[in-house]
Design a protein that fits this description.
Helix content is about 35%, strand content about 30%. With about 160 residues, it is of the alpha+beta class. It has 5 helices and 7 strands.
Length: about 160
């Protein structure tokens, strides 16, 4: 989190579909540096590439360190189409990183693990609330606005 807390009750400033993409790696053998270090180094290059291109569709991201043997990245995307377009872009950072990972995985057997999960969340099927927090999560990706009325509840926003 960066910046100081925003006073009051805030919610993410978005109403459309959002795609939540979780991606991570797990080191299965710490001594097999040649297997896991390139995977570890590839993600920052991809994140920088996406962050420089607002048309890519990535709205924001957050590193999730602290897993016992790995690291993960939480990403928010405008649409599944833009996420898939990036994944298959022949000129982007992802394709060569993915090809290199597959080669290393065949050679290194089970030295490094990799995972990702994609959730397409339709408009009206999510809500967010931030109380006295710096912009965070979906609110950092979309910006925040004050929650409307006193007494308004998450259940009321989801029911609309």
């Amino acid at each position: 989190m960066s910046g100081g807390p925003v006073q009051g009750r805030m919610t993410a400033d978005g109403a459309g579909e959002v795609v939540v993409f979780l991606i991570g790696m797990r080191v299965n053998n710490w001594r097999a540096v040649r297997s896991w270090l390139p995977v570890f180094r590839a993600m920052p290059r991809m994140i920088r590439e996406l962050a420089r291109d607002p048309e890519s569709g990535m709205l924001g991201y957050r590193l999730l360190p602290g897993l016992p043997r790995g690291i993960a990245v939480l990403q928010y995307w405008e649409s599944k189409e833009k996420l898939l377009a990036y994944a298959t872009d022949q000129d982007g950072e992802h394709r060569p990183a993915w090809a290199a990972f597959n080669r290393r995985a065949r050679e290194g057997k089970d030295k490094v693990g990799f995972w990702h999960e994609t959730f397409v969340v339709p408009a009206g099927a999510y809500e967010s609330i931030y109380i006295n927090m710096p912009e965070f999560g979906l609110g950092a990706a979309q910006g925040t606005v004050p929650v409307g009325r006193r007494g308004e509840r998450a259940a009321d926003r989801l029911a609309a």
